[in-house]
Write a structure and sequence with these properties.
The protein is of the alpha/beta class. It has eleven helices and eight strands. Strand 3, helix 3 and strand 4 form a beta-alpha-beta unit. The longest helix is centred in the middle third of the chain and has 21 residues.
Length: 267
């Protein structure tokens, strides 16, 4: 699968601004021929905007994703401030981002928390965009693969649990995306080289394949300061299946230019 996903984070500030962004996205994509689309487009608004965004994206080529779900319960419960997988799916989302470095940093998300979240998502048929990435210090210390392996252990444990429930490997591979986002590249304008990202993605694909021999190749996206200037370079690598875009996804023009770069390269 190829995908370009906009992670809107805690943006935009108002529903009016959300609708303006959607107006531009929909106007630019409604006339596109489905046969020319080789990349799945997705946007992940904040939880409060998810219902409205999903409603407007119904019957369009763009999917709605959440940015997080509750670890505590997949359904209902006394968990103030949380939104469950069931509620997110009911709001119209078909995917959720999990384990973003900002969640790991500001909410101290642990291995077990993330295993619970992944399992809760799959229980309600939400696809998972699982984020992993090393810090600047870890990168400088050449610890990238070791850090990613530790973070990917969440996927290993989740797959083991899902296998007990006889979940089909093909379905699992269709519902799982790994997003490699070096923490030092997020919002900084600094990016690793395409060669570095490609080698890292190859490592991720091999690592996940070893968790489940029956799992077809997993989709791996790159995220971190992807913009209209560097999108073509990343898209040209066969190891880079798409992008998870932050800042540049808040403007329809730049998001769609990035999406088009991947669409062209993956055609
Ligand atoms: P930027 O594209 O703003 O660097 O953010 C990347 C990101 O964190 C997407 O999840």
């Amino acid at each position: 699968m190829h995908a370009v996903i906009g992670n809107w984070k805690q943006n935009p500030a108002t529903i009016d601004e959300v609708n303006t962004l959607l107006d531009s996205l929909l106007a630019a994509t409604e006339d596109q021929d489905a046969n020319d689309q080789h990349c799945q487009l997705m946007v992940a608004p904040s939880c409060i905007h998810l219902t409205g965004v999903s409603a407007r994206l119904q019957n369009t080529s763009i999917l709605a994703a959440a940015q997080d779900i509750s670890a505590h319960s997949s359904s209902i419960g006394a968990y103030t401030g949380d939104c469950s997988a069931q509620q997110i799916a009911d709001a119209g989302a078909t995917w959720t981002i999990l384990g973003h470095s900002e969640r790991r940093q500001y909410h101290k998300e642990s291995h077990q928390t993330l295993v619970n979240k992944v399992n809760n998502a799959f229980e309600h048929n939400l696809g998972v965009v699982f984020c992993i990435g090393e810090t600047q210090t870890q990168y400088d210390d050449k610890q990238t693969f070791a850090v990613l392996d530790k973070q990917l252990a969440v996927i290993k444990d989740s797959i083991a649990k899902l296998k007990e429930q006889h979940i089909d490997s093909k379905k699992l591979s269709e519902d799982l995306i790994i997003a490699y986002e070096p923490v030092w590249a997020i919002g900084t304008g600094k990016v690793p080289t395409v060669e570095e990202v490609s080698a890292t993605h190859e490592h991720i694909k091999q690592t996940v394949a070893a968790f489940d021999k029956a799992l077809p190749a997993v989709t791996v996206l790159y995220g971190g300061s992807v913009n209209t200037d560097n999108a073509d370079d990343f898209a040209a690598s066969t190891m880079i299946d798409g992008a998870l875009v932050g800042g540049a996804s808040l403007k329809a023009d730049s998001f769609l230019a990035i999406a088009n770069a991947f669409n062209r390269a993956k055609s």
